[in-house]
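[Automated response] Your request has been received and processed.

Submitted sequence:
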Amino acid sequence: MTTPRPVVAVVPFGAQGHDAQAGVIGRQVARRLVDRFADDPALEVRPVFLVAMPETTSDAGYLVFGSTPDPELAVRYGESLGTTHALTGLYREDERGRAFLVTLVDVAARGVVASHEVAVPEGQLHRAEPSLAVWLVGALGTPAQAALEEPETTNETAYRALLGGLEEEVNATLLREGDPDAADAARVLAFQLYVAAVRADPESLRAEDRLLVLAAESVERGDEERAARALEEVIEAKPMSWRSHYMLAELLRQIGETNHAIVALEHAHALRPLRDVDVMMLAELYIAEGAPGQAAAHLRRIAPESDAFGRAQELLGVLALGKDDHEAARAYLERAASNGRPSAEAHLARAHIAAGRLDDARRALAQIISSGTDADAVGQARRLRLGLERPDLEADLERAGRAALSTNPVSYEDVRAAFTRVLGFDPDLWEAHFGLGLVARKQEDFPAASSAFRRALELAPGQPDVLHELGVALLASGSQSEALALLDQAASLRPRDAGYLADSGFAHLRAGDLGAARERLRLASAIDADDPLTQAYLVELERAETATGKVN
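Generated structure:
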C-alpha cells in the first residue's frame, strides 16, 4: 500500500520590517518555495492567493498581500485548496536581526505539526529559501529532490533583485485592468530588476528565465523595444547566453531592425546550431536586407529529410530567378514542388516565362488554376496568366489599383471601368474585386463595397488587406459584430501596422469594450505616435471613459 504524497498550501508570508521591502521578501520567498517544488514527484505545493487593495491613495504601494494566520485560519486555507497541510510564515527584520518563522499545519488534524526559525545572516538572504525547503521535506518525511539545498543565486544582491522583479510582475498583472499606466511602470521596473539580478550573478538562470518570459509577452504588450534593450544588457553580462541572443533576434525582427536581428541570430547560431525553421527565418532576413548570397549559403545546408527542405528549395529557386539563372531556378523549384510546395509551382511557371518557354508556362498555369488546391498559388497563377495573355489589361489593373488607393481625386468611373475590363478576361482575379470594393467605399456605397470585398475574400482567404477593408465597410454599415472579428483578425496578421490596430481598437470602442479598445489604441500609438486617426480614436475613447465613469 502506497502513502499518498503530501499536498501543502503555502500562504504568502507576512512581514515585519522597517520598510515595504520586507513585505516583498516575505511574499516572494513563499512564492519561490512553491516554484521550487513544481516538479517534485514526492510533494505537491499549491499557492494561496491573498490580495488586499489599499484604502487610500496615500498608502504605500498599490498592492499589499501576505499574512501570518493562526492555525485555525491556516486549516481553512488548506481546506479551500484541498490540501493535506498548510504552511504559514513571517519574515522579520528588527534589532535582533533577520529571520523567517514558519509553521506547518495538518489540515485533517487541525493542528500544528512543526514550527521552525531560519536566521538570515548579513548577506545570506539567498540561502533562506533552500533552507526552508529542506526543513519542509524533513517535517513532512518526504525525500529531498536533487539540489534542493542549492540557492537560486550566489549572492543576496542578485536574489533581492530577483524577488523584486517577481513582485513587480505580480503588480503589473493585478493593475492591468484598473490602472494600465501603473501596470506598464511595474513592467519597466521588472525588466530593470531582472537585468540587475543577472548583472549581480551572471551564472544564475532564474532571473534570465523570467526576463525571457517578459520579453516573449512584449510582442503582445507592444513594448518589444524595451524588452530588446533589456536583453542587450543581459547579453553584455552573459555574452554566451544563446537564449538571450535568440529572443533578442525575434524582438528585433518584430520591430523591423532586420540587420541587428541577423547579427543576434547569427550569434545564437554560433553558440548552438539553429533549428531548420530558424535557419529559414535567418535566410529570409538576409533576403529582406538584400544579401542573397548569405541567404543561399544557409538555405543550401537544409537537408532533403528536413521538413523545411521544400521551402528552402523554393527560396533558392526564387533567388536563382532574380539572377536570371533560369535552369538552376527550374531545378530548385521542381524539387520544391515535389516536396509539396504549391506556391513553388507558380514560381516555376514564372521561370518558364522568364526563359521564354511560354507553352510550358501556359500548361503549368492551367494546371494550377484547374487544381484549385491552394488559393494563394491559384491567385498567383491567375495574375501571371493575365500578364502573359493580356499585358494591356495587367497594366490597366496596376494603374487602376494605384488610383483606387490614392488620396487624390480621381475619376471613379474610369477606375471602375478598368477593373471591370480585367474581370471580363478573368472573373476570379481577387485584386480586381478588391479594387472595386475600394472604389465603392470611397463613394460611401458600403453595401457594394462589402459585396466586392466578400468576393475578394472568397478568392483570397485570409488576405489581411481584404479582411481589414471588409471590416471597415461592415463597421460603417452597422454590422458591428462581424466587423469586429474581421478587424481583429487583420490586426493579428499585421501586428506592426498602426492603422490596422487603431481600426480594431475603434471597433472595440463601438462595441463598448473600452479596455480592449485602449489596449489596441495604446499599441497603435506606440508604433506611430503621430497618426492622426489613432489620436482621434483616443480622444473618442476618453470621452466614452468619462461618460461611463471609467476614466483612465
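Summary generated for your ticket: The first helix runs from residue 20 to 36. Residues 53-64 have pLDDT under 50 and may be disordered.
If you did not submit this request, please reply to this message.
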